[in-house]
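ARCHIVE CARD
CATEGORY: sequence design from structure
SOURCE FIELD: tokenized fold
FIELD CONTENT:
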């Protein structure tokens, strides 16, 4: 379902992960509103998500995109090694667990919906993933970002432990 939208001048990639319709029953019938979940990234290690609601789909997508771009400014850069991640990591959010394992060149992004868009927006090109627990797209996006923020390079770990690399 998710597809990359047209390229813009600020070289950010954005993916529409999920659009959901919500119905409120009122006197005259049903009133519909829409929720949009969008992932925004620069494909160089920064990624964020935007979530918004509106009465029509295009305004919901635009509001979510704006929300994602604002939160992208506040996120830190994720440590990537080549086209993959430096080590195995488990991202958690709510009942969702996303296990991410580094993969060799040519593997591609082996991931389901929600997780795939986050990894592509981040710039990961080779990775293996597995989802345990809830498959709610909002929680999967948050769990994937949580896992990516846990990543550390060898140099970062060495400086945190006060050890010299040999």
């Amino acid at each position: 379902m998710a597809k990359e939208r047209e390229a813009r001048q600020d070289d950010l990639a954005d993916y529409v992960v999920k659009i959901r319709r919500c119905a409120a029953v009122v006197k005259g019938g049903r009133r519909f509103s829409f929720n949009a979940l969008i992932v925004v990234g620069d494909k160089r290690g920064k990624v964020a998500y935007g979530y918004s609601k509106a009465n029509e789909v295009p305004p919901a997508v635009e509001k979510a995109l704006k929300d994602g771009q604002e939160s992208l400014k506040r996120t830190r850069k994720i440590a990537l090694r080549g086209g993959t991640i430096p080590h195995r990591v488990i991202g958690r959010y709510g009942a969702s667990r996303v296990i991410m394992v580094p993969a060799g060149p040519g593997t591609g992004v082996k991931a389901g919906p929600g997780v795939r868009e986050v990894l592509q927006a981040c710039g990961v090109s080779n990775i293996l993933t597995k989802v345990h627990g809830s498959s709610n797209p909002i929680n999967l996006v948050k769990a994937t970002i949580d896992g990516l923020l846990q990543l550390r390079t060898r140099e970062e770990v060495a400086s945190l432990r006060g050890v010299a690399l040999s």
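CARD ANNOTATION: The chain has two domains: 13-74, 89-159. The beta strands are 13-26, 29-41, 47-54, 89-93, 96-102, 109-110, 127-133.
SHELF: design records, drawer C
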